[in-house]
């Protein structure tokens, strides 16, 4: 009898526990969502984390790879090698060097800081400089000192994408990358979770569209009938000079995509011979073509022109608007050159 009574009490206790779980379950994160830090949240405080499924998304993984390769390329002279964005960027050291390289500004921060306070102070200085640069251009600030220092991948990626786009990094960000983010908030002593979708990248055209619109945007959007007139004028202009090397252009979109004609054209316009070891005369890979276009851009800047708004990758990828911008810039500066 005692045994039956004990079992009955246990069953009632289990039933009560199930009832409590059923009532509170919408307010409690699942075990896969729960992090030790969540229990330490203050009332009404909130933290976010990347959904585990999004971390395994191929497009998100590709975005991480592109960003890591970009950082390592930019900081090659500093002998900095990034392997993991969360582990390598949280203390502010790499972000400091990256911002200084991209902006050409030297930040007044300690070079090496081991303490948490020192790291956060460095991050504060770096992020203030970043925010002062990006906020006037309409960027939403999706990062903070605490979020980055806690090795939260979501704000780190948002920050890097914003920097890459603002400084027109010579990379091609994968398009339409979205992630699912888990938001954890403490209310009345209980943890509440919600899932939201965050868009990291859109289309290349839209991402480039964050920059100031120019005459070609207006031309392509509102006067496509005049486009052929412009293209004919540019073809006449480039052939006037390339004909000296027995070269001729008939298609602007394709014939400048490997960068060879751009390099040769700059030499003709500036009146010098470009050594063949400086570029690939018969480029085969995407990287070699990007090298050629980038080198042509350097020659343009050496000639006193502003840095082209177009990215070398977009020219290589047969983006008509980007190619037209580059050629029109040459036309306006060298139209009277013999």
Characterization of this structure:
There is one protein chain. This protein is mainly alpha-helical. It contains 17 helices and three strands. It has a three-stranded antiparallel beta sheet with strand order 1-2-3. Strand 2 and strand 3 form a beta hairpin. The N terminus is likely disordered.
Give the helices and strands, then pairings.
Elements (H helix, E strand, L loop, with lengths): L1 H23 L11 H4 L6 E5 L1 H4 L2 H17 L10 H5 L3 H11 L12 H19 L10 H5 L3 H14 L11 E10 L2 E10 L4 H5 L6 H8 L4 H16 L9 H4 L4 H11 L15 H17 L9 H5 L3 H15 L4
Antiparallel strand pairs: 1-2, 2-3
Helix pairs in contact: 6-7, 12-17, 14-15
